[in-house]
Amino acid sequence: MACPSPSASSIRHFPVIGTSRFAVKPLPVEQGGANVTQRRNVLLIVVDQWRADFVPALGAGFLKTPNLDRLCREGVTFRNHVTTAVPCGPARASLLTGLYLMNHRAVQNTVPLDSRHMNLGKALRGIGYDPALIGYTTTTPDPRGTTEKDFRFTLLGDLMEGFRSVGAFEPSMDGYFGWLAQKGFDLPENREDIWLPEGEDSVPGATQRPSRIPAELSDTAYFTERALTYLKGKGDKPWFLHLGYWRPHPPFIAPAPFNTMYDPADMPKLVRGPTWQDEAKQHPLHSFYLNGISQGSFFHGAGGAASELDEATIAQMRATYAGMISEVDQALGEVFAYLDETDQWKDTLVIFTSDHGEQLGDHYLLGKIGYHDESFRIPLVIKDPDAPQAAGQIEDCFTESVDVLPTILDWLGGTPPRACDGRSMLPVVRDGVPSDWRDHLFYEYDFRDVHYSKPEGVLGLNMDDSSLCVVQDSKWKYVHFAALPPLLFDLEADPAQLNNLADDPAHAATVAHYAQRALSHRMKHAERTLTHFRSTPHGLEERQP
């Protein structure tokens, strides 16, 4: 039987191929016959390592975040939002390209991002915006466009092509340390010692003592000053600002008064098994990290394994983490106040999110790794000034970091690239969840060797076998590995995800069903930049999906 022909209305014909056909469509000058005169501003706030359950609107009543609370009251807060990749480099690549890890392939920190990919910065330029960035993107450049002697290859990551930096943190935090020196602060020989308590050469573990750097000179203060400088310079011209904050990323030490803002006794209780050795039995990858993560990356000068942290130490660490969250919130209040004073708040789409989460001792881990919810579940709040009716809503549908790029472009009148794996969340914000919205979450992790972590040899894998993907809905979480055993968790009976059911014959059908869903998801989202074009006797045709 012959396949039906597409309708004429679903095809465009091009007599000549121009590069503009493959770019984001320009912002229309007219809409509905009237000139567009309303200023459209976008403030994309991207914090670092802030996990979803540290949001008061989602139940973290112990936190003091009046400005985030305001944003939640005036916008929509998403309860089931994930980054589609960790750690920082892959997470930000997905956020800013709208692509899954399987497509952008910047699979780990230090792995290059292919320069052919469209990203939010490039797309915004295509519709007439100057995409400003404060902070960082942790992007390693495409080596085919430079030489092996390029200084950027000595860094953890640099800035993504397409954005204009107006408050650089990279390379190696030089922008921040230079700002401190300009402010008259006497930098120590080892610049990172500013995050040690005064008079101490190390922090043997979690502490409530303040950092040497005062709050008015913290990295959070630096980013905020850069943001206000940029906004005041723009005047009444439309703008887009990616406002990044490094916190609550470690080292887990806060400046006064945020170091003592929270009582460790008020922190959320740990999610973990009886011992780390018990948890290590769950999976070889989990065992590798339990045996390999040190405390030193989180507390300057500390020794010992992260898995050995006791409950009191973790409670203090969480109190410090909460203090750094409140510091960022106070800084956001300064930015929000300026937008209020200049009457720009009503014209500004505000999106608040994080690159990834943080284990914070759950499952005996620190950092953002593996397959655990704590690493992947992140905050998302959208304040759409065109949808006042949505103010204060908590949305339970499944959303992913790849949805941010198409949402911003949609709000500005642009069109996301065909290759984009996400979809605009504006319909969800304005009209409720569409009937064809996704019915599961999908996220990935690549654990190939990098210079600071080398699991391949321990696990007996090569680099192209060192990956996993997750398909997760409200009932089941399935983790598929390229070359290691799978995992299956019953989220209703085992929300802590301690009991792996993948080897239980009674759940063989469930494993098969979710493995098929994972395969179908990957097939549907395989790279498709040009797959809707085709040549014909009449010239090039473009099919609309």
Proportion in helices: 25-40%
> Mind summarizing the main beta sheet?
8 strands, mixed
Q: How many structural domains can be distinguished in the coordinates? A: 1
Count of strand segments:
18
At the third CATH level, what is the topology name? Alkaline Phosphatase, subunit A
Broad shape: globular
Give the amount of beta strand, in percent.
15-25%
Class by alpha and beta content: alpha/beta
Instruction: Give the CATH architecture.
Output: 3-Layer(aba) Sandwich
The termini sit apart by 22 Å
Averaged pLDDT: 92
Report low-confidence residues grouped into runs of 5 or more.
1-9, 15-37
Overview of this protein structure:
- Strands 8-7-9-4-10-11-5-12 form an 8-stranded mixed beta sheet, with helices on both faces.
- Strand 15 (476-481) and strand 16 (487-490) form a beta hairpin.
- The protein is of the alpha/beta class.
- The model is unreliable at 1-9 and 15-37 (pLDDT under 50).
- The chain is built from 14 helices and 18 strands.
- It has one domain: Alkaline Phosphatase, subunit A (3-Layer(aba) Sandwich).
- It comes from Teichococcus oryzae.
- GO terms for molecular function: metal ion binding; sulfuric ester hydrolase activity.
